[in-house]
Every structure is written in structure tokens, then in C-alpha cells.
User: Fold this.
Amino acid sequence: MASHAPLSMSSVGLGAFLLLLVAGCGNEPRITDVDALAPAFDALSASTDAIDLGKAIFFDTDLSLNANQSCASCHDPQWGFTGPLPAINAHGSVYEGSVTGAFGNRKPPSAAYATQSPILHWTRQGGGLWLGGNFWDGRATGEILGNPAADQAQGPFLNPREQALADKACVVYFVSVSTYSGLFRSVWGDAISTVDFGADPASTCRAGGTLSLSAAGRAIVDQAYDQIGLTIASYEASQEVNAFTSKFDAYLRHQARLTRVEKQGLSLFKGKGKCSRCHSVNGRDPLLTDYSYDNLGVPANPENPALISEGFIDPGLGGFLEDEDEWGKVKVPTLRNVDKRPTPDTKSYMHNGVFRSLEQVVHFYNTRDVLSVCGPDVSRDDAQWGVTCWPPPEVEQNVNRSELGDLGLSPQEEAALVVFLKTLSDGWGS
Ligand code: HEC
Ligand code: HEC
Assistant:
């Protein structure tokens, strides 16, 4: 399942794309013909102006309640487009939003390669399963704007635990007065300049208020907010974010050799370790995920503030679909850039960041069902934790027992798998 449309595919011009979007704007339904929109999204993604604009928005801290947080605050390119704060990664792993003390309940996954995920759908393959979407639980399906990452990009600005603005109109207003507003108008036209945002929109927005607009102004705001989502996704779909420049990519293109141990790791990844059953390595530019969902029986992160304060147990896809059969399953993440970081400081792994090293992750796959269950007195910082015992799964239902848990890998084989995972960082050799 590693197929994906080439990034440069572009048969439909930006004009046609605009027409489609305008045709789809208004109240309900906004854009119904998702299949027709997919090539148009590719056209937008081929426009360097749109990509530059999307990047400017991605890094703009003004688009948050306290002007202190951008998308990049939780998705830093130097950290493989995931969380850049070692002190957070080593503990709760969930990030604070614009408002002090307002934390999310999951670890930020990589925002790179996310546009390649198909629209969430059911397939008969493999006895029937869900594929695609964005977020650990797939709830950014892609059905609104035609790409899961575009749907996703509309969430954070208004999420009280993230950028925390109270009104789409605030996001659009700050874009309209930004240093890059000229670029916005050249990609999307002048409509946003015609909106009357009222007397002092900045103060209202920074105080957490909503703006009162005319019906016509509101319609332009709704359209501009869709355009912002699509534009961010066009950056996320760009070559810069989907670089395919890891050592592994160079190896696949016959431009680099893997060391003996890296090669051993790759063959374990495809063979005895069973990793490629979910983290696909087929094809020329493999994505290291098949966008399916699984419950690996990962333990809860005892330092997740949502667990501590609300007893939050993550239902994953099952919670979104309200389906017991999917309870506890989360999306298979790409392993691209899984080790990427600018310093040797801590990154964390899995939807809740419970694991703090790749060694721990691989040891878990290898021994989950072999070691004893840790008693409640064993803390995550104890030497036994994850070495001679594992805590019980966060979610007991639907744990995958057939593809992991007792792989029979030797310590040297575990180490070789980790060495291979380190070949997946973009920017190799540069
Ligand atoms: C406060 C931290 C934070 C901020 C700010 C933030 N994100 Fe995220 N992001 C997360 C977390 C946490 C998740 C996973 C949430 C979930 O699965 O429920 C996530 C998920 C994603 C995903 C899904 C990736 C996948 O493979 O499913 C993408 C893409 C993404 N964010 C992009 C963005 C963009 C674009 C912005 C700015 C508009 C942004 N994020 C702002 C924390 C953040
Ligand atoms: C049955 C499907 C499946 C198999 C087989 C599998 N994985 Fe995973 N992998 C997942 C899922 C699902 C997650 C996310 C789990 C979670 O967050 O609870 C994941 C997460 C990871 C992560 C953490 C990534 C991150 O960004 O947090 C790493 C590293 C990883 N897998 C490596 C491997 C390796 C190495 C193997 C082989 C030894 C392997 N996986 C086998 C499905 C699989």
C-alpha cells in the first residue's frame, strides 16, 4: 500500500482550481466532489507562490491567541516536523498551547509526508480495514477540502489547547495584515481586502473574542479559511517537506551504500521483524507507513496530563468512529525522520510518547509478550521498566497479537534494526 501520486502531477491549472473552490463555497455542502478536487490540490501544490505562502502561515506565531505559537512550535523541521522540546518529550510528551497550562492529550506526529495519506476510507483488503486520514485517530478525513492535511490544518488555530483563537475571522484578519498578505492576494485574489473586520479586531481577537461581520464578510472569511487550509497543505506537500533525501533513499537510488549492519537492519525490517507489514518499504519512494490502524498494546504514558487529570485512555480510531472493533487503534505513523533531531536530546515515540528511545521501541516489539507485566510500583524511570517487564496496554481491546510481541530477535538484531531506522532522516549528506 505504498503508492502515492507524484508531487509534481499537474494537469489542471490554478484557475480551474479557483473556480472549483468558488463553485463549492457558500454554506452547505461546501465541496462535495472530492475526486475532482484532488488534481486541483496537486495544481496548487505545484505553485511556488502557494508553497511560499503556506510556509509563511506555518511559521507565523501571530496566528495564535497570545501571538506566541505557530504550527512549527509543535512541528519543527529540525526535529522531523515533530515536537522540539526535550523536556516535554522526556515526560508528558504532549505540548502546551498558546494558553499556559492548556495541554493536548497526544504527542505531535510528524507533519511531513502527511499530505500523502489518502482520504479515510474502508477497504476490503486484508479482510477489511480502515486506511488514510490525518491525526492519530483519523478524524481529519480529507472529505472537506479533498486532502486530510488540508482538513487538519483548519483545526489548530481554533483549538483551545493549541493556537486558541476564538474565530476563523481572527485568523483571516491576521493573515490580511501580515507581511505576506500580498502573497496571499496574489494566490487567492483580493476578496480578503474587502472585508470590514470592525473597529479594533486585533484587540478583540487577542482577548479571545469573536468578530461581528456582515453576511458577505462572513462568506469571504469562510472561503479564505478554506484557502488557508489548502495553502498550508500545499506547503506540507512540497518537496521541501517531503524531501526523500535520507540515506535510505540514496541507497534505493543506487547513490549510496548501506553498511553491513544497516543492511542487516533493513532485512530484519522486511523479514524477521515484520516491520514492513505496516511500515511499507515497497516502491521507489516508500512512505514507511500503509496508513492503516492498529493497537500495538502500547502502555499509557503515566506523565500525560490528560491521563493524570481526566483519566484519559486513548480510544484512537474507535473513539472517532464510535466503533468497538476499532477501539485503541491508532494510525501507523511514517518512520521517515523518526530519529531526526538537531542535538542528541530526547525524542519520544508512539501516540502518547511513552517510549523515549528507538531501542525501547524495538525491544517492545520484540518482547511485549515474553516479559512479565510490571507491577504498579514499577515507575517508568526504574531500571526494570521496559527491560525485564512491560506495563499492561493502555487499551486492552483489539491488541495485535499476530505481528509483534515475540519476534525472537537477539540483542544484536535489535541494535541492527535501530541502526537501520537512523538511515531514514532527510538531509543525509548535505
Ligand atoms: C500545541 C502543539 C501543536 C500545534 C500548535 C499544532 N499541532 Fe499539529 N499536531 C499536534 C498534535 C498533538 C497532533 C496529533 C493530534 C491527534 O492525533 O489528535 C497533531 C497532528 C498534526 C498533523 C497530522 C499528521 C498525521 O500524520 O496524521 C498535521 C499534518 C499537523 N498536526 C499539522 C499542523 C499544522 C499545519 C499546524 C498549524 C496550523 C499545527 N499542526 C499546529 C500538535 C500541534
Ligand atoms: C501491525 C502493524 C505494525 C508493525 C508490524 C510494526 N509497526 Fe511500528 N507502528 C505501528 C503503529 C500503529 C504505531 C503507532 C502505535 C501507537 O502510537 O500506539 C507504530 C509506531 C512505531 C514507531 C514510533 C513512531 C513515532 O513517530 O512515534 C516506531 C519507531 C516503529 N513503529 C518502528 C517499528 C519497527 C522497527 C517495527 C518492526 C520491529 C514495527 N514498527 C512494526 C504499526 C506497526
